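Z., the sequence and structure:
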Amino acid sequence: MFAILSFFYGASLGSFTQVLVTRLHVASILNGRSKCLSCGEKLRWFDLIPVLSYLVLRGKCRTCKNSFGKEHLFVEILFGAVFVLVYYLVLAGRGVNVSSLLWLIYYSALSISLGAITLYDLRHRLVPGFFFVVFLLLSLIAMVLRYATENDPYTFLAPVLVASPFIVAFLVTKGRALGFGDILMYLAVGAFFGLEQGLAVLFLSVWIGGMVALILHIKNNTKYGMKYALPFVPFITVAFLIVLFTDIDVISIGQALTGWYY
């Protein structure tokens, strides 16, 4: 029962995040009801139930029949799946108390900020400042909590160490090889996870991004040539979620690779 509630709660956050990204720098984020971007008709509450409304309406506006796009359904399902994992791996067994509520608020804000950064980068090849600041603050909270537990002074060096390969690449290529937003993301990742897991996010994101770029190039080398720049934040986000929910780090990845090789 709680898993189902977690799914629809997460899907609702996914729907809300898409509204934030759509309205950012265009209209008031929190004021005004949702409406169809094609005909301008305001959407009623029963057209805004995450996942279910999309399936009932077959992804189209009730009034003008314009398609909303499959990405809306995908994002809602993805957010829902993330919060099912949050429930099982973070909240389950904690009971209903202040601590559980605070963790729910924390992961809600984390999901919205990281999701907004990812979706905005996909659309505009840019990391939105406001949502990055929120993501960075949440990452700093995680870093402080980790230091309070481990009392390791190297905790505060992790952000720079994790981002250092991209910082060097940025300086050597004078910003031609990557955007500065990617460096900012790795700084936040290093603060959130620490050194070993932060490096795991770094390696996984580069590997996943490289594989996707190779597949796209093989599929259409004219459109996805050597000069085509893929938005990289989505790969960082995928790697972030993998590390968050599997708890792997760079050492376990190295052991897995060497064990497979030998």
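The CA atoms of residues 159 and 187 lie 4 Å apart. Residues 125-262 form one domain.

Let me know what you think.
H.
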